[in-house]
Description:
The complex is a heterodimer.
Chain A: H1 2-34, H2 45-51, H3 58-78, H4 85-129, E1 133-138, E2 143-146, H5 148-154, H6 158-161, H7 175-187, E3 192-193, E4 200-203, E5 209-221, E6 224-233, H8 235-293, H9 300-331, E7 337-340, H10 341-351, H11 353-358, E8 362-365, E9 371-374, H12 376-392, E10 400-407, E11 411-418, H13 450-460, E12 465-469, E13 475-482, H14 485-502
Parallel strand pairs in A: 8-10
Antiparallel strand pairs in A: 1-2, 1-6, 3-5, 4-5, 5-6, 7-9, 10-11, 11-13, 12-13
Chain B: E1 5-10, H1 14-26, E2 31-36, H2 39-47, E3 60-63, H3 72-81, E4 90-94, H4 99-107, E5 112-115, H5 120-137, H6 142-146
Helix pairs in contact in B: 1-5, 2-3
Pfam families (chain A): HATPase_c, HisKA, PAS_9
Enzyme class (chain A): transferase
Keywords (chain A): Kinase, Membrane, Phosphoprotein, Transferase, Transmembrane, Transmembrane helix
Amino acid sequence: xxxxxxxxxxxxxxxxxxxxxxxxxIAVFIIDLRFPLGVAGGxxxxxxxxxxxxxxxxxxxxxxxxxxxxxxxxxxxFSQPSGYLVMAVANRLMAIIxxxxxxxxxxxxxxxxxxIKKSEDRMSALxxxxxxxxxxxxLNGRIVMAxxxxxxxxxxxxxxxxxxxIEVLIPNRYQPKHKRFRLDYYDDPEPRxxxxxxxxxxxxxxxxxxxxxxxxxxxxxxxxxxxxxYVIDITQRKKAEHKLLKAxxxxxxxxxxxxxxNEELEQFAYVASHDLQxxxxxxxxxxxxxxRRYKDQLDEDASDFINYAVNGAQRMQELLNDxxxxxxxxxxxxxxxxxxxxxxxxxxxxxxERYIEExxxxxxxxxxxxxxxxxxxxxxxxxxxxxxxxIKFKKEGKPEVRIKASELEDYWQFSVADNGMGIDENxxxxxxxxxxRLHQREAYSxxxxxxxxxxxxxxxxxxxxxxxxxxxxxxxxxxTIAKNLESAQEEKRKEAIKNQIFS
Amino acid sequence: xxxxxxxxxxxxxxxxxxxxxEGIKEAKIRNxxxxxxxxxxxxxxxxxxxxxxxxxxxxxxxxxxxxxKKDGREVLEEIKNDDRLALIPVVVxxxxxAEKDIVKSYKxxxxxxxxxxxxxxxxxxxxxxxxxxxxxxxKLPTGIKGK
Lengths: 503, 147
């Protein structure tokens, strides 16, 4: 719509201009006729040419030139001849030269004006379309120019801003300081971010403050020196930062609490299992003493009952011992050292020598096994539990256990595979829970602590443990050991922060 | 040996005292079992102070670690730092399986460290073994047994 009105306006203007030019040319022509030929009556046509400056079209100027030339020639034909003919012709020619000189000048002037306007339009588009708010201010801190974004950010139309001190855009409490900083900047006007190390705030027209980031630059022209401030609203960033910081703090807090409660729990398990042994020992001992002393006076039932009591006490002692052992994974942990996993396996095979022989088991290690940064005793326990399990839950026939390692980016992954009875998928997670057993006590001994200890040891080494198995087809236990515990933990922390933020 | 061996049991748990008594009863060696119930009493007994003016210096001490007043570790330290008592074999007999207790006891020159077993049979075995070991197998300075 607005474009159309623009066009019709300039269309009307062009008609007016042409009409004006027509009148002027007629007037000049009449004057020219009144004067003798010796007078350079063509020169005033130059005014006609200059008037075409107001028309945007090049052809109006050229047209005016042609018209003037024709009129000059016509004037020669109609005017009274006087004086020398040569003079008169030279006069007319000179007028024509002046006319075309003026044409050339007007066209070129218009062209360069056009060029400047285009470049100005581009600059102003750039200025207006900038995603940063831009303010140009003079050495007194008065705003000279501001862009569209500044209007959006601060809520003032720019007419209200221009001429104001730049401090209107700053919360009251920063204003005196800002004036000082502003003066300092003029002394050393290097381009730089403003308020390094400080949080900066903008003041919206409605009195609301918002965090901003400002960079400064300056320029100089014939009007003087000016400062350019680029303003970015960083509310969103601050919010995100705040959220991140909060998540980080919370997580840290949680980690501390967790560590604390974990330590407490371990201490509790340790003390409980230790102190519980004492009364248990009394129950077991005195029940046995009873049986021993009064064997002859008791009937068969009484002996059975005593047996059950003693078995119960012994069973409970085993559980307590296991609990003690489990709690020690954390509480008796040693510092990590360089450990050869080959040496660990060797150690385990020595410990299990009799067990392996009794079961006629075949243990195959696929060398080479890597060197790890780990707690050696715990690694021994880990492999020992896994190998022992592999043999314990065998099928008919010779048990075979294969141990191998493969290298991942940040971890070593080990596997202990057997050809035993395997584990149903439903139970594959449960087996790592403390005191979870899949088999009846009569069939397999043990309290169900072995794999729980394995899991705890692996986790202490920054890794994970899982099992692949099908009933009747053997089981393969996989576990990972972090090459660098700290970076593995850092990785986990980052993951946790991510989860916390996006949850 | 013509006279019974004198054993000092330092133990605060009544049930344990009785159990040790019963265990010792079944042992083959003739003995007198003296019982004190905390660390201070133990030191009084050994130094023949107060009520214990007339007791005999024991040939063997069975010492629990967790005692009221003065605990077993202190008692052990005092015994081993005292020239007159240092030669008496001290058997630490306790429920603690803690590595640090074991190490600490040996550092304080305990003669051996035994954990109380769960079953009565094993307990009797342990007591018998202790007696056998210290009074028939081991050669001790004559000053101790003969006194």
